[in-house]
Every structure is written in structure tokens, then in C-alpha cells.
Amino acid sequence: MEENKKTDEEILEPQNAEAESTEAESAEEATADKGKDKKADKKCKEALAKSEEECKRLTEALAEEKDKYLRLAAEYDNYRRRSQKEKDGIYADAVADTVTEFLTLLDNLQRASQFTEGDKVLEGLALMEKDTEAVLSKLGIEKFGKKGDAFDANWHNAVMHEENDAYGENEIVEVFQEGYRRGEKVIRFAVVKVAN
């Protein structure tokens, strides 16, 4: 039996030696893994710190952009209100300036209504017509649509047509109502009769 024991021991010794060497290798690998884990942990911590810094920087940048946006929105709102107020004021001023110019005509009408003699009334009406043309001229309004002018659909409204060889083609032969414009803006189209 002793021989058997020695043999068993002899047999087990190389296995034990192998097991011990495997354990030693495992221990070395574990130590190497711990070293690798420490390096990986260090890298992860550095990456996390960088990410946190980047996140903080981006949060600050976003807050700054949000502040700029809010200021711009408030500035636009103030501009819109101010523009509307100016627009309303311009219209009111334009109406007031126009009415002021026509008040002299009203004064002349009141003076003319006091006269009963025919010649004086005609003289007053001629003065009022002259004053009216002066007021319209001050306001930048010009009269158009005279007999002999060429017909233009942009300025004239033809209500009658006449075939007559004595007149040229599309010539205005009669004006029923004169037109008025301010620059290129038509206030009232001229109502005319056109030949040919």
C-alpha cells in the first residue's frame, strides 16, 4: 500500500504543482486586471470630469443664448408698439393737416353765403375755386383728364365712345369729371368720352 500511496502522491504532485502554478498565474492575472481596472477607472474619471465641464460650459452658453433671445423678443415687442403708436399718430397728423387746409374754404363759403347779389356770389365762387386748387396743390394733389389728352386706362374711366374722323385714335373728346392723383396714386379717375 505504501507503494500505492507514493505512487498516488507522486501522481498528485505534478497535478498539485500545476494547480499551484495556475493559481499563481490567476493571482498574477488578477493583479494585472486590478492594474488595468485602476487605469480604466482613472480614464473613466477623467472622461467624466471632462464631460461635466463640457456640460457646465454648454449650460452656461444655453443660458446666455436664452437671455439674448428674451432681450431680443422684448426689444421687438417694444418696437412693434412704438411703430403702431407712430403709425396712428401719422394718420391723425395727416387728417389734421388736410382739414386745416380746407378750413379756409369753409370760411370763404360762409362769407359767400352772406351775399345775395348775383355778381358778388359769382365772384365768391371763382375765389373759392381758386382757393380749392391752391389747397390741393399744397397737398401735392394734381388734376388730370383734359380734352385732347390720350386715353390711358390707368388714369381714365371711359364711359362713352364716339367714332369721329376729326379726332385721333383714343383721344379724349369730352371730360365729364376731372381726375385727381397724388404722385402715382389715383385719388379719383377722370370720367371721359373717347373717340375712335
Uncertain residue segments: none
Estimate nothing, just give the exact number of structural domains: 2
Specify the biggest β-sheet: 3 strands, antiparallel
Q: What's the alpha carbon Rg, rounded to whole Å?
A: 52 Å
Strand order, biggest sheet? 1-4-5
Structural class label: alpha+beta
Q: Looking at the structure, what is the overall shape?
A: elongated
Q: Whole-number average pLDDT? A: 84
Task: Give a short synopsis of this structure.
By secondary structure, the protein is α+β, with helices and mostly antiparallel strands. Helix content is 67%, strand content 16%.
Structural write-up:
- The chain has 2 domains: 19-139, Alpha-Beta Complex (Hemagglutinin Ectodomain, Chain B); 142-196, Head domain of nucleotide exchange factor GrpE (Nucleotide Exchange Factor Grpe, Chain A, domain 2, Roll).
- The chain has 2 helices and 6 strands, in the order H-H-E-E-E-E-E-E.
- The chain has helices at 2-112, 118-138, and strands at 142-144, 156-162, 171-177, 179-182, 185-188, 190-195.
- The chain has a 3-stranded antiparallel beta sheet with strand order 1-4-5, with no helix packed on it. It has a 3-stranded mixed beta sheet with strand order 2-6-3, with no helix packed on it.
- Strand 4 and strand 5 (185-188) form a beta hairpin.
- The chain is elongated, with a radius of gyration of 52 Å.
- The protein starts with a helix and ends with a strand.
- The model has no long low-confidence stretch (mean pLDDT 84).
